[in-house]
Design goal:
Elements: E1 3-8, H1 22-36, E2 47-51, E3 55-60, E4 66-71, E5 74-80, E6 83-84, H2 86-89, H3 96-110, E7 118-119, E8 122-128, E9 133-138, E10 147-151, E11 155-159, H4 162-165, H5 177-186, E12 200-201, E13 206-211, E14 214-219, H6 233-251, E15 257-260, H7 265-278, E16 283-288, H8 297-307, E17 310-315, H9 318-331, H10 341-353, E18 358-360, H11 365-369, H12 373-385, H13 389-406, H14 410-422, H15 435-439, H16 441-444, H17 447-450, H18 457-467, H19 474-502, E19 505-507, H20 513-520, H21 524-527, E20 528-529, E21 532-533, H22 535-541, H23 547-550, H24 561-567, H25 569-582, H26 590-603, H27 605-624
Parallel strand pairs: 15-16, 15-18, 16-17, 18-19
Antiparallel strand pairs: 1-3, 1-11, 2-3, 4-5, 5-8, 6-7, 8-9, 9-13, 10-11, 10-12, 13-14, 20-21
Helix pairs in contact: 6-7, 7-8, 9-27, 10-19, 12-14, 13-14, 18-19, 24-25, 24-27, 25-27, 26-27
Length: about 625
């Protein structure tokens, strides 16, 4: 991995590694090295450190992603490959060697607003020892992370991963019960919370200003949807294709660059453009599963053939999953329950063995251009909302519910389910199939554990993100929600961490700032036209992508875990042993685990297998960090 870490002591107090005190400096350097070690443990990234009188910072990254400045009591550490905007660059000093120095000038001139001049993926810290101030910031999509903790005694501690932060002895390592509950609800720990009590992390486009021992969070950037009538299609198409090409050009590394290829519209588009900008056949990598309903390799082969890529593929087996699970649990600094991380890891590992050091991922396309299947489903529910309330509440619903309850005809039950969902408001309707809600948290979790959590907190965070967006249309509100919970909290960490484990960097051309800004200008109907997903995107690429791929339903690298759980003894033993050990941690009821392993899995292996995976990965995460057997207060 790469990243940054460090601290700023309370204003007026010397660093324990203050310059001029040899013993203190040696101790401080050792502490900074201990924090930086988790950032470089998988790819052996070079670590650049700087110690001041009250602050310290380190960056673990390749030469093109590490930027450090130290002069006149000002320490700057920047991780990533950002550029300065035209307003920030001014004299054109945005080249890599001068980037940190230019940020120093911007800090002196504009204070916390300095981070708004950065574009692209980054994590930034500015430590001003003279004023006792600090600034932390991450990029607009949340590609890079920053965790932090503050106290009056220790000042400000920060790091790009929770593992690096807790390496500091003053950082708390006690687990937050609410974060554990949120993990079981979302299958990840959504920001700004973290798995550790007392720690927080920055949201996409957010900064933290530390001054006089006080913290102030703010957004230097937010997604600004422009929902007025868009410009003509022809000019939009030309702008889109030009922006796409530049985004890929900026994402290509100095050495070998390849691309994930699932055979969907996003990955196929990137494979095409990568070949164009590199002047050679793009190297593409796909994962398949020898399981009915899970293998999408035919579409990947179609795209590879159509664009003439140098294609590589691998079929992942249940044995591969058994080998990967402990490693996947170890690389994530928080519990993470998205099973497709396994496929992403093996894809990246295959690329690394081929000499590829950077992969292009298509993540973000769905959340920017309207590609998630639920957008179309929710548009159908919105049609029901437009039926006059009197007709719905007095005629349709009473009649249908009476018939459906008295007769179990399949069609009537389906209609009743539709109306039950349609009558729920957004975003609650999106959680209709949430596993924890379906089971009931009282049936899943121990009574003592439940005393320490707020079961309504996850829905509260969803409501806040949904209703505070700048978008007025349903599609933009849903996409804004997904930019946070689906992309920044789930998909990006999945791919970034899987690639980290394989020793590969990853870039996301669709999350280029110019591409994000372009997508915000599209009219809602250009993203979702009726129930047609990605309407503009597909129209703009219909002369480029094969028709079968444009018409393909979204699938991705879904893992047939529930299916294999029934047939593979080794995987079953790993999962069930993990769940057995989890019983003793005071979180999940033993009776629920027993019921899950017997009755639920027998009823629907694929559906209930998801919860088995989520619980297995939680226990595996505990094991990798040697967490005490019982974690609940």
């Amino acid at each position: 991995m790469s990243g940054l870490c460090g601290w700023l002591a309370p204003h007026g107090q010397p660093n324990q590694g203050a310059v001029g005190d040899g013993a203190r400096a040696e101790a401080s350097a050792a502490l900074l090295a201990a924090m930086a070690a988790p950032l470089a443990r998988f790819d052996a990234s070079a670590v650049t450190s700087v110690l001041g009188g009250a602050g310290a910072a380190a960056v673990a990254a390749g030469v093109d992603s590490s930027h450090v400045f130290h002069k006149d009591g000002l320490l700057i550490a920047l991780w990533g490959r950002p550029t300065l905007s035209q307003a920030g660059a001014l004299d054109g000093a945005a080249r890599v060697p001068a980037l940190a120095a230019r940020l120093a000038q911007l800090w002196r001139n504009y204070g916390p607003n300095a981070c708004a001049s950065l574009a692209g993926p980054f994590a930034l810290c500015i430590l001003d020892e003279l004023s006792g101030e600090a600034l932390l910031a991450v990029d607009r999509s949340g590609t890079h992370s920053l965790y932090y903790q503050s106290s009056s005694r220790q000042g400000l501690l920060f790091a790009s991963s929770a593992d690096a932060l807790i390496a500091h002895p003053a950082a708390g390592s006690g687990l937050d019960p609410q974060a554990l509950y949120n993990y079981l609800y979302f299958h990840t720990v959504p920001g700004p919370g973290t798995i550790y009590a007392g720690q927080q992390r920055l949201l996409p486009g957010e900064y933290l200003h530390y001054r006089g021992g006080r913290l102030s969070r703010g957004a230097y950037w937010t997604m600004a949807y422009q929902e007025a009538q868009a410009q003509p299609f022809k000019s939009l198409k030309a702008e889109f294709l030009g922006t796409l090409r530049r985004s890929v050009e900026e994402s290509v590394g100095p050495n070998g660059t390849g691309a994930f290829l699932s055979g969907g519209t996003d990955s196929s588009t990137l494979a095409c453009v990568l070949g164009q900008v590199s002047g050679r056949a793009a190297r593409t990598y796909s994962i398949g599963f020898d399981a009915p309903g899970y293998d999408e390799m035919a579409y990947a082969r179609l795209a590879a053939s159509h664009f003439g890529t140098e294609h590589h593929e691998l079929y992942v087996t249940a044995d591969d999953v058994v080998k990967a699970v402990p490693r996947i649990a170890a690389v994530f600094d928080q519990p993470f329950g998205n099973a497709s991380a396994v496929a992403a890891f093996y894809c990246a590992e295959m690329a690394r063995a081929d000499g590829v050091t950077r992969l292009l991922g298509g993540d973000g396309g769905d959340e920017l251009f309207g590609g998630n299947e639920r957008y179309a489903r929710q548009a159908q529910f919105a049609r029901y909302e437009r039926v006059p309330a009197l007709l719905r509440q007095v005629v349709l619903e009473p009649l249908l519910f009476k018939l459906a309850s008295g007769q179990q005809q399949k069609l009537l039950c389906k209609a009743r389910s539709y109306i039950e969902q349609a009558t729920l408001p957004l975003p609650a309707r999106l959680e209709s199939y949430n596993l924890l809600q379906r089971y009931g948290h009282h049936k899943v979790l121990d009574d003592e554990f439940l005393l320490n959590i707020d079961p309504g907190a996850p829905m509260g965070s969803l409501n806040e993100a949904y209703w505070l967006t700048d978008g007025n249309s349903q599609i933009n509100q849903m996409m804004a929600l997904d930019l946070k919970f689906t992309l920044a909290d789930n998909d990006l960490p999945k791919v970034v961490k899987a690639c980290e484990l394989a020793g590969v960097e990853v870039a996301f051309p669709f999350l280029n700032d110019a591409m994000v800004a372009f997508s915000a200008r599209l009219a809602p109907q250009q993203k979702l036209n009726g129930t047609r997903l990605r309407y503009f995107f597909k129209q703009a690429l219909r002369d480029i992508l094969p028709r079968a791929i444009i018409r393909k339903e979204k699938h991705g690298f879904g893992l047939p875990f529930g299916l294999w759980l029934q047939s593979h003894q080794g995987l079953r033993q790993l999962a069930f042993d993990s769940l057995s050990d989890l019983k003793g941690r005071g979180i999940v009821r033993a009776s629920f685990i027993d019921e899950l392993q017997t009755r639920h899995l027998a009823e629907h292996p694929a559906y209930h297998g998801t919860m088995v995976w989520v619980l297995m990965m939680l226990e595996q995460w505990f094991k990798q960090r040697q967490v005490e057997p019982r974690v609940a207060p």
